[in-house]
Amino acid sequence: MLHLDNSGDLHRWSRAALGRGQTIAFVPTMGYLHEGHRSLMRIARERADQVVVSIFVNPLQFAAGEDLDTYPRDPEADLHICESEGVDLVFMPGDLYPSDFSTTVVVEGLTNGLCGATREGHFDGVATVVLKLFNLVRPTMAVFGQKDFQQLQVVRRMVRDLDLDIQIVGGPIVRDSDGVALSSRNAYLSSEERAQAAILNKSLIAADAQVRAGERDPEVLVEAVRQAVQAAPLARVDYVELVDAGSLEPVTGRLDRPALLALAVRFGQTRLIDNRVLGEEQLQA
Length: 285
Ligand code: AMP
Fold this sequence. Notes:
Elements: E1 2-4, H1 7-19, E2 24-29, H2 35-47, E3 50-55, H3 75-84, E4 89-91, H4 115-118, H5 122-137, E5 141-145, H6 149-161, E6 167-171, H7 191-196, H8 198-212, H9 218-230, E7 235-244, E8 259-267, E9 270-278
Parallel strand pairs: 1-4, 2-3, 2-5, 3-4, 5-6
Antiparallel strand pairs: 7-8, 8-9
Helix pairs in contact: 5-6, 8-9
The structure holds adenosine monophosphate.
């Protein structure tokens, strides 16, 4: 496995791989890798000749006061994980931005709601770094987790709007045995918070069961999840929303096609997100 920290070297490597007619699958991450990241690497490994993983805690996607400085890091363990998943190249740059960096990629509309409503500039930072990494890696395809559903849709929209010749693949959410979605940020949780975090997925499953039983009122579904989450003493709801899975606009009126139930909940300083598509089997897309 190659380990590069320099953009010039990566450019040369990708030019050579593409020159040999090889396909490249890319998995961008912020490191502190877990089974969720591994699942994306496996999807990439199955689909391309070369697998590239980037590990970069991107300052542009953290607002002032967020956890940029404390974001968990373990580069040694990350390299072992990549090696064990058969990754060909790990790109771990120290920095990606010159001091006079002055370009921002803004994907409008999709970024107004959900996490975009409270995380000022977050998706601009995501779109900017992803486009930059795409230009360095020059992947045939890139794999993103559905856990960050809004991010996945933002990337898809950017790729479509800017005619990037990259296939975007979404990987399913990987969960712990108690249903908690794996996240590098779970490392921040106390044992009490970690135990209570199980209510997120439980409440999404309960909403799914309500839809299966015939409930079609978005307000009833959202309110039930909000109540269930708020019953956990340490949980503070940031949002619970039922949105169209394509436009991410809130569902109004009766639920008549599959929709995304998405939530963000704080436990102390830690903000967790989760989501589930409802009505996939019961309703026509
Ligand atoms: P991060 O390192 O948190 O920026 O995540 C890197 C990639 O891994 C993103 O595409 C995430 O959506 C994805 N990811 C993070 N957690 C999970 C999970 N539990 N299941 C599937 N994908 C995940």
